[in-house]
């Protein structure tokens, strides 16, 4: 997101070095979050069917967003592309907000399950083998990875 903000605020024809640096930030932000999201959602579901479905949906949405993003960089907006960079940056901000909200919800849910079990020390996800969670994520011993 920092790379998008940098590019939106810079004139690429006058600030070529800073614009070039911003493209490196864009590249770093493009690939790493995808890997993190896939490892996260695959560790919060206990059954393979849910994992497979979520993985397919996530990959599809990632591909669709890349197609939409590519269509937003219109020649009429060159060379700054402020509109396209603003929309893309806004969607990244939305993803950050949703991820932070989901992480907060998962931490609250874990604390709620600890209270329901009467536990004085928080139970960690690795404390209960998944094969013991007969009811999957409905089992009171299930904990989200946060």
Question: What is the domain tally?
Answer: 1
Which sequence of SSEs, written as H and E, runs from N to C? HHHH
Low-confidence stretches: none
What's the β-strand tally? 0
Spatial separation of the terminal alpha carbons: 22 Å
Provide a count of the helices. 4
The global form is: elongated
Radius of gyration: 20 Å
Largest sheet: none
Mean pLDDT: 86
Helix content: 55-70%
Query: Beta fraction of the residues?
Result: under 5%
Q: Structural class, from secondary structure content?
A: mainly alpha
Write a short abstract of this structure.
Helices cover 66% and strands 0% of the residues.
What does this protein look like?
With 146 residues, the protein is mainly α. The chain has one domain (2-110). 66% of the residues lie in helices and 0% in strands. It has four helices and no strands. The protein has helices at 2-9, 16-43, 48-72, 82-117.
């Amino acid at each position: 997101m920092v790379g998008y903000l940098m590019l939106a605020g810079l004139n690429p024809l006058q600030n070529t070095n800073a614009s070039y640096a911003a493209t490196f930030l864009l590249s770093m932000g493009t690939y790493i979050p995808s890997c993190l999201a896939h490892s996260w959602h695959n560790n919060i579901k206990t059954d393979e069917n849910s994992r497979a479905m979520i993985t397919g949906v996530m990959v599809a949405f990632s591909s669709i967003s890349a197609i939409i993003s590519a269509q937003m960089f219109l020649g009429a907006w060159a060379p700054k592309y402020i509109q396209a960079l603003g929309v893309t940056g806004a969607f990244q901000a939305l993803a950050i907000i949703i991820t932070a909200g989901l992480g907060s919800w998962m931490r609250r849910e874990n604390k709620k399950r600890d209270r329901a079990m009467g536990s004085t020390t928080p139970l960690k996800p690795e404390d209960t083998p998944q094969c013991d969670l007969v009811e999957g994520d409905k089992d009171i011993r299930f904990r989200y990875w946060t």
